[in-house]
Amino acid sequence: MSAVLLLVKIGWRNLWRNPRGTLLTALALGLGLALLLISLGLLDGLHEKMVGDGVRFGTGHVVLQAKGYQDTGSQDLLLPARVVSMTEEFLHTEPMKHVVRGMSPRLLASGLLSSAANAAGVGIIGVLPQEERAVSLIPLRIVEGTNLSDDKRPGVVIGAELARKLEVKVGAKVVLMSQTVQQPGTEATVAGEGGMQSTLLRVSGIFRTGVQAIDAHIIHLPLPVAQALLGVPDRVTQVAILLEREGDSPMVARDLRKQLAGEPVEVLPWRESMPRLVQIFRLDQAFNYIMNGVVLAMVGLGILNTILMRVLERRYEFGLCKALGLRPLQLAGMIIGESLALTTISLALGLVLGSSAHYYISTFGLDLHWLFKSGAPSAFVFDPIIYSRLSLSRIATSVSIVFLTATVISFYPALKAARTELPDALKVF
């Protein structure tokens, strides 16, 4: 035990024989850990924002819809008012109050929106304005006019790209035409065929989300107006549910399925209702693993280069230690002890630098507007201000991996030192 303590003491003194070199090395390696922590925080923050914005532009964390709608997308598949009422009652129970942030019934259809200048195919979403504001981001992205405020007034909110194509502004009149929904129990010459209905609407607001598919295609109008247009009073296509925490979506979906057992409905968490978002999320995760691996490799190579250079510069010292009776295993242990001590100092500096940067970015955000001087591209779905999100488990894992990597990498320089040959090492040129 005393021999081990002596080796540790010698290794620690060896580090500070050149304090400037040791501190510069520790700072360089600490910057590597800080870079790893910053990248993990930004990537986790981006993932959180991706999911948060994705579900609020889509179907919410959990969606309730008629059985088969996910596969077919048929606008004839509707939920009866009874199911919507049962869902609302369940979400207002005591266990769900602290889990659910909001719910919004929606009626989805396709139609043709025309102005005096042009016409375009649109995706119709009939909403209750107050409920939709708690679930969707579109009411929060109004850039001109106002959002729907009275669910009985025949107004419409459209995207900026659609407004540009139709050459309309706030207050302009537009005509919306759509096919009525074939009601169950009625007959038609062709299955699913209904008559055409149209209604005159006034543009009350224009939104801009930055997503081309939404800004050029989606319109919001009051739910009663949409129901009257499609001929389906008191019926909706889906109920979008937004939760306080994304991780609760499987639990809420499971409990809601039990509540609605026997009804012809499907309850899907966002990972099932929005498979494209999941694919993008997984692709981004794979890319992040590669990037983190590159950063970790850079840190490891930095440690290897530093320790190896220190070993090669001290061949005479190692030869003298061997001549004084230090065994190869003891010499290797001294080098490993030095590298671990240097790694510990580096990790402490890296934690200080990384935590400071994380605190700043998590508080004030990282503004990426400068990357898009001419405006964000149409595919840029999220706000260009990213906030860092870094959990304690992430920090502990990163520190452990770097420490383990440094330990493994130090074996090679230690082996080089242990194999020092006395006749060559003691030569003085």
How is this structure best described in words?
This protein is an alpha+beta fold and 429 residues long. It has two domains: 199 residues, no CATH class; 214 residues, no CATH class. It has 17 helices and twelve strands. The strands form two sheets. It has a six-stranded mixed β-barrel. Strands 11-12 form a two-stranded antiparallel sheet. Strand 2 and strand 3 form a beta hairpin. Helix 1 packs across helix 14 and helix 2 runs antiparallel to helix 12.
How does the SSE layout of this entry go?
Elements: H1 2-15, H2 19-57, E1 62-66, H3 69-72, H4 81-91, H5 94-97, E2 100-114, E3 119-127, H6 129-133, E4 142-145, E5 155-159, H7 160-166, E6 173-179, E7 196-207, H8 212-215, E8 218-222, H9 223-230, E9 238-243, H10 249-259, E10 265-269, H11 270-273, H12 275-312, H13 315-323, H14 328-364, E11 366-367, E12 385-386, H15 392-409, H16 411-418, H17 422-425
Parallel strand pairs: 3-8, 5-7
Antiparallel strand pairs: 1-9, 1-10, 2-3, 2-6, 2-9, 4-7, 5-8, 6-7, 11-12
Strand order of the largest sheet: 2-3-8-5-7-6
The number of helical runs is: 17
**Secondary-structure element string:** HHEHHHEEHEEHEEHEHEHEHHHHEEHHH
Question: What percent of the residues sit in helical stretches (DSSP H or I)?
Answer: 40-55%
Terminal residue distance: 38 Å
Overall mean pLDDT stands at 83
Per DSSP E runs of 2 or more residues, the count of β-strands stands at 12
Largest sheet: 6 strands, mixed, barrel
